[in-house]
Structure formats: C-alpha cells, structure tokens
Amino acid sequence: MKKYIYIVLIIIGFSSCSEYQKALKSEDLTVKFDQASKKYEKGKYYKAITLFEQMAPSFRGNTQSEKMFYMFSQSYYKTKQYYLAGYQFESFAAGYPKSDKLEEASFLGAKCYTMLSPEYSLDQTDTEKAINKLQSFIDTFPNSSYMPEANLSVKTLREKIEKKAYENAYGYNKIADYKSALIALDNFIIDYPGTPFKEKALYYRLDSAYQLAINSIPSKMEERLNVAKTAYANLMKFKSNTEYKQKADEMLAKINTDLKQFSK
Fold first, then answer.
1. Which residues of 221-232 are buried (b: 16+ CB within 10 A; e: fewer)?
2. Closest CA to 259 of 230, 225, 234
3. CA–CA separation, 236 vs 28, rounded Å?
4. Distance (Å, whole) CA 160 – CA 163
5. Ranges of H-type helices in 175-196
C-alpha cells in the first residue's frame, strides 16, 4: 500500500513539473496565470515569480491583472527581495487605486524600505526613504489597522538616524577634538531636541567644554571655564539625577576651583 502511494506521488510530482514547464514555454497568458496561481498558493514563490515576470509586460488590462500583480508583489516580499517588492507594491498601488488591497499594498511597500534599512553605522539613505514612505502611508491612511506598526517603525528608524548623528558628534570627543565636539554636539541637540540620546550629548558637551577649558592658554581659560559651567547647568536642568551626576559634579568642583584664580 505504501509503495502504491509513493508511486502515485511520484506521478503527481512529474505531472506538476510537466505542467509548470509547459506553462513556461506557453504563449497563452491564461495557462501561465493558472500555473503561477497554483505555485503561489502552494508557497512556491520563486517558481511563481518566474511566470509572473514573463506575464507582467503583457498582462495589464487583463481581467485578472489586479490579482496577478498583487501576487507578484507578495511573492517578492515573501522571498525577501525587498527592493523588487517595494517597487511592485508601489506600482500596484498606483495602478489599482480602487483595489481593496490598496491599503495593505501601500503599507507593505513602505515596510520593504524598512527591511532594507541598514545598521546605524552605515549610510542611512534607505532609512530616510523608509521614514518618508511610512509617513506618506500614515498621512494617507490615518485610521489604518497598520498604524501602530507604522508609527513604531518610524520611531525606530528615527532613533537609528539619531544614533548615527550622535555617534558622529561624540566621535570628536573620543579623539580629543574638543572644539569640534562642542560644535557637533550643539548641532545634534538643536537638530534632535527630543532624542533619547540627549542626556549623553549634554554630558559629553560638558566634558568637551571642560577639557577644552583646562587645556586652553590663560587668555581663553576663564571664558571657556564659564562655558563649561553653563554646560553643567544645562545637563542638570535636563536631568538632575543624571547617570553622569558624580562625574559632572567632580568637573564642576574643578571648574569653580580654577575660576577662583580669575577673581583675584
């Protein structure tokens, strides 16, 4: 009995392969569409994609074109070909603005760019694109069921960009280029006022100001010590119980001690 079932399965498998090969060679779009649909439903997305790619140039205007291009987009998405999927979903949304799949396609198209967003240390062009695409989706579908995910993705992506900007600014402090660090950290705080990295930025702004001051020539030291003192006040104003409080307080004590020489 088992042997009989095995033989039947082999025959069915050969038959399926034969039908797929015929569809690949066929000029009949209906044959291709039927076979591509079967492969799609069975989760054989790569095989479905091959047929969709053959059909796409001639399939617009066909009564099944909306369904075909939706499955085509999904097949790229499910095989993690996000550049191609993003393009296809956007093309689908533009071509079928009255489709009941419009909202889903618009969201997934934006999500594709999210999936392409690299580590924060790398170029963030795709991250910027993802934010813009998601924001466009949010503006177009404000009541969408995808809204929580879209908003969370935007928040995560923005934090990634902010982290890169913060690390770039902090990098000047790390290499002891304190004058550049002050400028870069100031710009970072201005550009990203609500960033989760603000506490760190304010502390390393204080540290940069302090280090610049104590390593200055006498004629510039008093002014720079006062800049550092203001940086301490800004950190405490933002968060009085900052995790850097002990280090900051130690710097302030040294700043006040050093300033005494100028009050004589």
1. bbebbebbbebb
2. 225
3. 74
4. 5
5. 178-191
Q: pTM score, two decimals?
A: 0.81
Could you tell me the CA-to-CA distances from 32 to 38, 57, 70, 229 in Å, in that order? 10, 13, 16, 74
Average pLDDT rounded to a whole number, residues 165-174: 98
Report d(CA 161, CA 77) in Å as an integer: 25
Q: Which residues contact 78 (CB under 8 A, 6 or more apart)?
A: 43, 45
Alpha helices in 141-217 (DSSP H): 147-174, 178-191, 198-214
d(CA 70, CA 82): 15
Average pLDDT value over all residues in the chain: 92
Q: What is the DSSP letter of 241?
A: T
Q: Provide, rounded to the nearest whole percent, the portion of the chain with pLDDT above 70.
A: 93
* pLDDT tens sequence across 180-198: 999 999 999 999 999 999 9
- Between the two ends of the chain, the Cα-to-Cα distance in Å is 106
- Alpha-carbon span 38 to 17, nearest angstrom: 12
pLDDT in tens, 116-154: 999 999 999 999 999 999 999 999 999 999 999 999 999
The sign of the CA dihedral 234, 240, 242, 246 is positive
**70-104 b/e (C-beta count within 10 Å ≥ 16 → b):** bbbbbbbbbeebbebbbebbbbbbeebeebebbbb
Under 8 Å between Cβ of 229 and 221: no
